[in-house]
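User: I'm new to structure prediction. If I give you an amino acid sequence, what do you actually give back? Let's try with this one:
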Amino acid sequence: MHKAGFVNIVGNPNVGKSTLMNVLVGEKVSIATFKAQTTRHRIMGIYNTDDMQIVFSDTPGVLKPTYKLQESMLNFSNSALQDADILLYVTDVVEKIDKNSEFVERVRKQSIPILLLINKIDLTNQEELIKRVEEWKEIIPQAEIIPMSATSKFNVDYVMKRVKELLPDSPPYFGKDQWTDKPARFFVNEIIREKILLYYDKEIPYSVEVVVEQFKEESKKIHINAVIYVERDSQKGIIIGKQGKALKKVATEARKDLERFFGKTIFLETFVKVDKDWRSSDKELRNFGYQPD
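Assistant: Good question. You get back a string of structure tokens that encode the predicted 3D arrangement of the chain. For your 293 residues, that looks like this:
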């Protein structure tokens, strides 16, 4: 008998959802950085064996929306509750338990199996952890609570074991050679955006969107032209940096990652353009692949 199902990973920003998904799928599918709000789309990573297919979905962290982009991100998180066979609710030992209680309430009402993963347990002690487990037992009584650490892979095997046991009988949803539902150029965006998140301070990364305008693949090399959109001229200056040094660093690091990712020589050209209201415009957000209501 073949098993298959959708396993959706939800939780607040910065609790380790993307890191967990990368470890579970075994490919660097979802970008994981130390800044909140790096995952803006639902990203599916697909784990295949001969008799099993697990479709993991990593969702944006749940935020109270303050502008259109965040509303779109929250829509992705809410839709993740509707089509899951198993829900992985990720929290950690640092965040306040009552953070985003409305979303937690929606999770509590789910009838599907819930694994509540308390991540980053290396940052606490036994006593505190026991207290936290007890608190979560009261909030989502039907959840199976699993303390873990995604970065040191502690208890990740056990999470995978439980997911496999809970998976419904079903034919596969995707081709067996497929490990994500996203097109190649999506990962070019994500990798470039990850470098921007790492190398620039404060609000700059959140005012940026990346669009791949050319992706020409040959047998041994890929030519990529990518445009980095910012909201203001001043941000354009910051992204480019003195004598173009900042942009050069981003492009060089992104190219190294892309070569590892695609296993080919990459020729990457990056441009910076100003698009004043991309985060607040429904039309622009659609162009960038979000789904405003």
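You can read the tokens as a compact description of the fold. Here is one thing that stands out. The chain has two domains: 3-166, 184-287.
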